[in-house]
Design a protein that fits this description.
Layout (H helix, E strand, L loop, with lengths): L1 H6 L6 H9 L3 E3 L2 E2 L11 E6 L2 E7 L9 H4 L3 E3 L1 H20 L9 H11 L3
Antiparallel strand pairs: 1-2, 1-3, 3-4, 4-5
């Protein structure tokens, strides 16, 4: 499982793919998948990563990480998944318009509070 997720470019390293499996962020046919699980053509996966939630069907198997154009041929994303990710991205983009940014640089007092909040000294 972790090799296929890495080869399909859902994760940058196999370690990150294995960690996602361990944390339950990968589901195969509705069941949590372990990193060592065998992947089969036709399996339905639900992958949660930084890029969003993907629901994909496995079309091809690969243990080798290749270019992104080849990686995209390994799976087919469902229409519902694609629409949901685009909707979430649009909402995130719209929220940036309403985000209030500070007028200028933080004062010395503000910097001290930021440093204290972050847990440093």
């Amino acid at each position: 499982m972790d090799k296929w997720l890495w080869a399909a470019r859902f994760f940058k390293t196999r370690t990150l793919a294995a960690k996602a499996c361990e944390l339950g962020r990968i589901q195969s046919d509705g069941q949590p998948a372990k990193a060592a699980r065998e992947v089969r053509i036709g399996d339905n996966l639900r992958v949660s990563n930084d890029g969003g939630d993907f629901q994909v069907e496995i079309l091809l198997l690969s243990d080798v990480r290749g270019p992104a154009s080849v990686a995209q041929t390994l799976y087919r994303e469902t229409e519902a998944s694609r629409e949901l990710r685009q909707k979430v991205a649009a909402e995130r983009k719209a929220m940036k318009q309403f985000e209030e940014l500070p007028a200028g640089r933080p004062s010395k007092r503000d910097r001290r509070r930021i440093i204290q909040f972050r847990g440093r000294s």
